[in-house]
Amino acid sequence: MSEPIRFYYRGAVHEVRDAAPTQTVLQHLREDLHCTGTKEGCAEGDCGACTVVLGTVVDGQLELKAVNSCIQLTPTLDGKALFTIEDLQQQDGALHPVQQALVECHGSQCGFCTPGFAMSLWGMYLQLDGQKPGRKQIDDCLSGNLCRCTGYRPIIDAATRMTELPQVTFDTARLTEQLAGLKRDRLSVYAAHGQTFLAPRTLDELVQLRAANPAATLLAGSTDVGLWITKQMRELNEIIYLGHVDALKHVAERDGMLEIGAGVSLEGAYGALCRHYPEELGEMRQRFASLPIRNAGTLGGNVANGSPIGDSMPWLIALGAHVVLYGAGGERVLALEDFYLDYMKKDLQPGEFVRAVRVPLRRPNVVFRTYKLAKRFDQDISAVCAAFAFTLDGDTVASARIAFGGMAGTPKRARTAEALLAGRRWDEAALTEAMAALAQDYAPLTDMRASSDYRMRSAQNLLRRFWLETRPDAPLAHDAVNAFAVRAPSCAA
C-alpha cells in the first residue's frame, strides 16, 4: 500500500501523494507548489541555480546542508525539512542578513543565479554562529554556484558582510522536534504513475528488497541517477532508496582500516579520511565536486558506480582499499581493483550491494599522493587522476602501487611499472623506466576532455611529480613518510 511523502516545508508538514517517484524536487517546487524562486539552469547539479537546504536529524542532531534540487527526487524528502529562497524573508518582512548583504554588496545583476547563491550562503551562515568565514571556506561554500554577470567578487564580499549585520537565529530545537514526528521505523512504499519507490530502514529490509527486486535501481545520493532521469530520460520503474538505512552510515576504525558505510556522504567520508591523510587528500576533497554534490553523494555510490573517470577510485586502489559486498548470501570482501571487471561492469552477484569501503590507515614508510588534472579547479571531471602509494626502505622502493583514472575503461593499476620499480633505488633512472612502462599498462582514449597523447604524457609527468616530492634528496623531505615538496591545502574540520 502506497504511503504519502511527508516533509516539513514553509512551517508545516507537507504531504505528496500523486507525484511520479522520479519527479525532482525542483519540479515539485516549481510545477506543483508554484514556488518559482528556485531556478533551473542545468538540470544536472552543475550550476547551483536550484540550490536548496535540506534538514535531517542524524543521531539526534539536526544537520542542515545545501543540495541541488534539480537532481534530488521528491520521495527522498520523506522525513526531512526543505528550505528554499522563499523561507529567508523574516516574519516582519525584513530581508535575511544573507539577502541584505547581497543587496549592499551588489552581488546580483541579472538575478537568475541569485537564489542559489543565497541558499548556499544561508547554509554556511547557519554553521558560522556569527563568526566571519575565511576565504577558503567561502570558496568551498560557493564552489557549486555559477554566475555569468558579477565576476564573483561582490558575492564573496557579501559572504563576509552577512556576518557583520544583526544576527538572525534559527530554532533548531523546534525543527528537530517537528522532524521527530515524521520519522518512520519501518519500510515505506510510495507508488504513483506506474513507478514504485521503496525506502527500507534496516539492513535486513534492504537485503530482502534487493533479493526480491534484483533489477531495481539502488539510489543513494542521486548525483548520478538524477542525471539518468533529467538527461538520459530513463524510465526507472522500481527504485530502492538507501538514504534511510542507518546501518550504512557508520564510520569506524578497526584492524588498521577505516570502514566507511556506503550511505556516508562524500563530505562526511572525505572529512573522516582527511583526519588521517590531511595533506594527501586535502586538495582532492575540495576539487572532487562542489559542496552541494558532496553533501548529497556518497563514497559507496561513487565506488559502486565505478566510472573510469571517478576521482575516488584511483587513490583508494593505490592505498589498497577493500569493498565490502553484502546480500542474502552474507558478506563478501574484495580488493577494490578486483571489483572492476570491465567498463561499468562490476563483480556483483545477484542481490548484492556495496555495504562499505575499507581504507588502510597510515602505515610506516608509505608515501602517498593523489593528483587531479582538469580544465577547471572546481567542479570539473578529470582528464587524468593519478594516485601513488610507495613503501620506501631508505632510498629503495620496497613496493609500489600506482593507479590511474581516465586512462582505461576502469580505474586501473599500472602493474608493469609497479613491478619494474619493486626493489629498485628510487632514483631518476628508475623513474624514467617506469614512466616509459606506463605505455605498456595503458592505452588511453581521445575524447572531449583530452587526447590519448595528452593523457599518456600527463600520467608520466604526474609520476615524475611524485618522484620530485618523495625522492630521498627532495628539498623539503623530512623523512620517507612526510616529504611534501608541494603542500596541498589542509582539510577543514
UniProtKB/TrEMBL annotation:
Q: Mind telling me what this protein is named? A: Xanthine dehydrogenase
Q: Where is the FAD-binding PCMH-type domain?
A: 190-364
Q: Which UniProt keywords apply?
A: FAD, Flavoprotein, Iron, Metal-binding, Oxidoreductase
Which residue spans adopt a coiled-coil conformation according to this UniProt entry? none
- As recorded in Swiss-Prot or TrEMBL, the protein's gene is named xdhA
Going by the entry's taxonomy, the superkingdom of the source organism is recorded as: Bacteria
Q: Does the keyword Manganese apply?
A: no
The UniProt entry, under PROSITE patterns, shows: 2FE2S_FER_1, FAD_PCMH
Q: Name one GO molecular function term.
A: FAD binding
The protein's matches in InterPro entries, at most eight in alphabetical order, are given as: 2Fe-2S-bd (IPR002888), 2Fe-2S-bd_dom_sf (IPR036884), 2Fe-2S_ferredoxin-like_sf (IPR036010), 2Fe-2S_ferredoxin-type (IPR001041), 2Fe2S_fd_BS (IPR006058), Ald_Oxase/xanthine_DH-like (IPR016208), Beta-grasp_dom_sf (IPR012675), CO_DH_flav_C (IPR005107)
Q: In the Enzyme Commission scheme, what number(s) does this protein have?
A: 1.17.1.4
